[in-house]
Amino acid sequence: MATKEKEKDLIKYKKEYNFSSPILYENDARVFNSYGVWSTPQTFFINREGKIVGRALKEMDWTKKTMKDLVESLLKEKK
Predict the structure, then answer these.
(1) Are 5 and 32 within one domain?
(2) Element (H, E) at 25
(3) Which domain holds residue 26?
């Protein structure tokens, strides 16, 4: 999620860091407020049913083995 930043800066960020996950961009912070986001960066893990199953409240190194293992375990959850 991103707010207040310029959209072109977000596109540059995604390209620079080869970031493939979607980033929500909004001007009015409605989604931020509905999810209780009060600082950035934050990452949400949403399961196949659309339910939030995890949340990271700070910048994370997603290339670490522990983070990759976490994501893989969430992806293996049964439908």
Answers:
(1) yes
(2) strand 25-26
(3) 1-40
